[in-house]
Specification:
The complex is a heterodimer of chains A (371) and B (469). Chain A is of the alpha+beta class and 371 residues long. Chain A is 28% helix and 27% strand. In chain A, helix 1 runs parallel beside helix 7, helix 1 packs across helix 10 and helix 3 crosses helix 10. Classes of the chains: A alpha+beta (371), B alpha/beta (469). The structure holds flavin-adenine dinucleotide.
């Protein structure tokens, strides 16, 4: 099979990239070794959050956030996006000081989307929060979406524009011969002018085939979800200095995260859970929201996610090969970035003007010339 | 934390017989079961039946008393009311006991999760008033509760047994609507000669049927096109037989079409499974001694493949012998010598089992939902139409379909819909169930309160805190 562009990985980055390319009339093939949305993009916490982002990431994240607001219309699908805001809770004055320092930094950079709230507003917006909390920060554009639905919405939209998505096809080898990339899949061969590496927790392997080494690691952040319970929290909840993170969906279920990691076994597509850490997440949740002590946990799981040492993604052209591009290493907050990443990758591949400064995301930022 | 040579999950006939064997050979054995009393489904409350005369339940039931006696005499650590919610292939078991999560370690693990009834997704199967024949048994055995004037519909020995038990107690039964297709009798007949070597089992079945016939209750055979009537509650059952449509009024409809292994434990442990073509269900892959794809994890009883209570006793014992060998307490030769009679017994029972499986094999029309409005996932209220729409939007894998439609995400963790979804996808994709696969399952295996989890400390944690202080 032949196409202009071959995208490797059917997560949200790969599907959004395929969508933006196909929409602009480029022929695209996407290879996914399992099924689209099988990994991080389909099983993550669904947080669509601009609040608290690394300043380097804010321009992209902000643009993405604007895209989320109208994504359902654009993709003609239900991504489950709800703009319910996110609140990071401050437990004490130390947390408030952290928030004020951040506010100063953000304002100096010209950003105004984050806003500090006082205790009264916190209690008003989260009536069930432990009344010892003193305030927080919020971003009102933020919210959540349903990960698998959003990823599959990009895939279906890409297909409507002519992209070919091949599930169950693993990239085995990749070679640059003349002006083409020759690609050996587990089932078939492909040929393309450009390749885009969106291989998530496996992206360092694909990068290596392209010729780029990268200090990527992978881990298995864990989540748990409760059975339905009465509505008590509309905003997505986080905390300034604690591993607290949850959101209540419209059906009443509550998804609890917090960043605790299980054990990742990427060669076998498997993860194991660390129950002591999950118990800790349960403790923190009940401490901040006593109403949650009554919750019943229904399921627990973990997803395989790719991390860079600075927790910023790699987005940009390959260093050691022509017509190869990378988008990976989103370090547990890349779901929100999907829409804009797809657009940027399409711009890069098509050689069009790109409106963002991508230097913080270049693949060779960890290269050292001397030992 | 307590450590054992072997921990057994499930105190039905398989778990009990294995525990007795292991304990009598001197191994340190723990048995965990959600129930307060051992016995499992079949011998539920056998030691203290609430019925004035437990003999109405039949000789198979009362036979359980012997096993219970042996179990109570053996040196076994029995955790009653212990609901295991995580079985790790590292030998760690987490279980809820009196509202706390407790933990134990074992060198060998034996899972005996038993069977569950195969759902019968006919239109209206989720209406209040519709229950399974198994539920009728549970109510009878543990609470001496019965439903007057119920309709019993479906096929299989358990269905006839509960009808007979009702009749012996003098409870009025509206009708028995038997769905065993004519073709099944013809196909099974071919297997009869070999099955006949087990005349006592066959006689037992025939006696039940004769007993039901003698009672004079209406019995309809070869029923098709079943549908539970009623809007809010079940008001009756409609079906067709011999070209005629019947409607039988009843507030309670008991459905049954055989049992299938309870998969959640073995699936959540990621053990290898295979599709059983004869019984049309998934089952964990084991060797003749119940050893699974993870060598220190074994499975026995109906949870490892439907074989009935007698079979469960035997497979439990066989698993125990192999575990004793693995623990270094029996040589291979000794294991094989002791296992020989049981292995022979299994071989002898196989033709009869094959006959029963063929005779009562459910039809696709009853195994898979047929009407678009029929619910497949009760927990998340997903209909056949919802699933088909998800499939048409590209969700061709059970897990993708689950992610898209929420089918299987509810508190039952796919126990009810798992086989149906696999069956539907197999039909829609025109591929074998093995290719389709099953839900990826995880612990906890049932709802766990956040409060209980929040109190859980890993077993080594207290030691660390002490050191830190
Ligand atoms: C538990 C958890 C919670 C999270 N919560 C949030 C959150 O709330 N908000 C947020 O913004 N982000 C969150 N994230 C992060 C977010 O999910 C990821 O950053 C994002 O989904 C990454 O998308 P991706 O497309 O790069 O990776 P993936 O979704 O992992 O996709 C990569 C795909 O590449 C395929 N692939 C790999 N190698 C090959 C090959 N050789 N051939 C073919 N295919 C291949 C893989 O099978 C995989 O499907 C969370 C992540 C996890 C794990």
């Amino acid at each position: 099979m032949k196409a202009d562009v071959l995208v490797i990985g059917g997560g949200i980055q790969g599907c959004a990239t395929a969508y933006h390319l196909a929409r602009r009339g480029t022929s695209v093939i996407l290879l996914e070794k399992d099924y689209t949305g099988r990994h991080a993009s389909g099983v993550n916490a669904g947080g669509v959050r601009l609040l608290g982002r690394d300043v380097a990431e804010v321009p992209l994240s902000k643009a993405s956030m604007e895209m989320w607001q109208t994504l359902d219309e654009e993709l003609d699908a239900d991504t489950g996006f709800r703009r319910n805001s996110v609140i990071n809770i401050a437990v004490d004055e130390g947390d408030m000081a952290t928030l004020r320092a951040r506010e100063g930094k953000m304002q100096a950079a010209g950003y105004t989307h984050e806003r500090i709230i006082d205790r009264a507003e916190l209690l008003d917006r989260l009536p069930h929060v432990n009344p010892d909390c003193v305030g927080g920060a919020t971003s009102d554009l933020d919210g959540y979406a349903i990960p698998y639905k959003a990823t599959s919405a990009f895939r279906l939209a890409a297909e409507r524009h002519g992209a070919q998505v091949v599930d169950g096809e693993e990239l085995i080898t990749l070679r640059r011969v003349g002006q083409s990339w020759l690609v050996q899949g587990a089932r078939q061969r492909y040929e393309a002018n450009s390749v885009v590496n969106c291989a998530g927790a496996w992206a360092d392997r694909v990068a290596m085939m392209i010729g780029d080494n990268v200090p990527l690691s992978h881990a298995a952040p864990m989540l748990m979800i409760t059975a339905r319970m009465p509505h008590f929290a509309r905003p997505v909840v986080g905390a300034v200095s604690r591993q607290l993170s949850f959101k209540q969906f419209e059906n009443g279920t509550v998804l609890i995260g917090g960043g605790a990691k299980g054990f990742a076994d990427r060669s076998n597509n498997r993860t194991r859970l660390d129950y002591a850490k999950l118990a800790n997440a349960a403790r923190i949740t009940a401490e901040f929201f006593p109403i949650m002590a009554r919750a019943s946990i229904n399921r627990m799981w973990a997803g395989l996610e790719a991390y860079m040492p600075d927790n910023l993604p790699v987005i940009g052209a390959a260093e050691n090969a022509d017509r190869a591009f990378h988008a990976f290493g989103f370090s547990a907050h890349g779901f929100q970035m999907g829409p804009v990443t797809g657009q940027i990758m399409a711009d890069l591949v098509l050689g069009e003007q790109n409106r963002f400064d991508l230097t913080p995301f270049r693949i060779n930022r960890y290269d050292r010339k001397v030992l | 934390m307590q450590a054992f040579d072997c921990a057994i999950v499930g105190a039905g006939p398989a778990g009990m017989s294995a525990a007795i064997e292991l304990a009598n050979a001197g191994a340190r054995v723990a048995v965990l079961d959600r129930g307060q009393k051992p016995g499992g489904q079949i011998y539920r409350s056998v030691s203290e039946s609430p019925l004035p005369d437990a003999n109405v339940l039949g000789p198979d039931y009362t036979a359980g008393a012997e096993l219970l006696t042996a179990f109570s005499r053996a040196d076994i650590t029995h955790f009653a009311g212990a609901d295991a919610w995580h079985l790790g292939d590292d030998g760690r078991i987490l279980f809820s006991h009196l509202g706390e999560t407790c933990e134990l370690h074992c060198r060998e693990m034996l899972v005996c999760p038993g069977a569950m009834e195969r759902p019968m997704p006919i239109p209206g199967w989720t209406l209040p008033g519709v229950m399974t024949a198994g539920a009728a048994q549970v109510m009878l055995k543990s609470d001496a509760m019965v439903s007057d004037g119920a309709v019993f519909a479906g096929s299989g020995p358990l269905l006839y047994l509960i009808v007979a038990q009702y009749l012996r107690l003098g409870v009025p039964v509206a009708a028995l609507v038997d769905t065993t297709p004519r073709q099944n009798y013809l196909n099974a007949a071919l297997m009869l000669p070999r099955a006949l070597r087990r005349t006592e089992l066959l006689k037992k079945g025939l006696t039940l049927l004769a007993e039901i016939k003698r009672s004079g209750i209406p019995v309809y055979r070869f029923a098709e096109g079943l549908k539970v009537l009623g809007e809010e509650n079940a008001t009756g059952l409609q079906f067709t037989t011999k070209g005629q449509t019947h409607e039988i009024a009843a507030d309670t409809v008991f459905l049954h079409q055989g049992v299938q292994p309870n998969l959640n434990m073995t699936r959540a442990m990621d053990l290898e499974h295979r599709w059983n073509l004869k019984q049309l269900c998934w089952q964990v892959v084991t060797d003749p001694f119940g050893q699974t794809s993870v060598p220190h994890v074994s499975a026995a009883g109906d949870g490892a493949g439907i074989f009935g209570a007698d079979g469960a006793l035997i497979t439990g014992r066989l698993a125990a012998l192999n575990i004793l060998h693995r623990l270094g307490r029996l040589t291979l030769a000794e294991r094989d010598r002791q296992a020989a009679p049981d292995l022979a017994q299994i071989t002898a029972m196989a033709p009869f089992r094959a006959f029963i499986d063929r005779l009562y094999r459910p039809t696709d029309a009853l195994r898979l939902p047929q009407e678009l409005s029929t619910l497949v996932c009760r927990c998340e209220e997903q209909t056949l139409a919802d699933l088909r729409a998800g499939f048409d939007r590209g969700a061709r894998d059970p897990n993708a379909l689950k992610s898209l439609t929420r089918c299987g995400m509810g508190p039952c963790q796919g126990r009810q819909c798992g086989h149906m979804v696999a069956g539907l996808l197999s039909e829609w994709r025109d591929e074998r169930p093995e290719t389709i696969g099953y839900y990826r399952l995880r612990s906890p295996q049932r709802l766990l309160t956040l409060k209980e989890l929040s109190r859980y400390q890993a077993a080594s944690a207290p030691a660390q805190t002490e050191a830190a202080q």
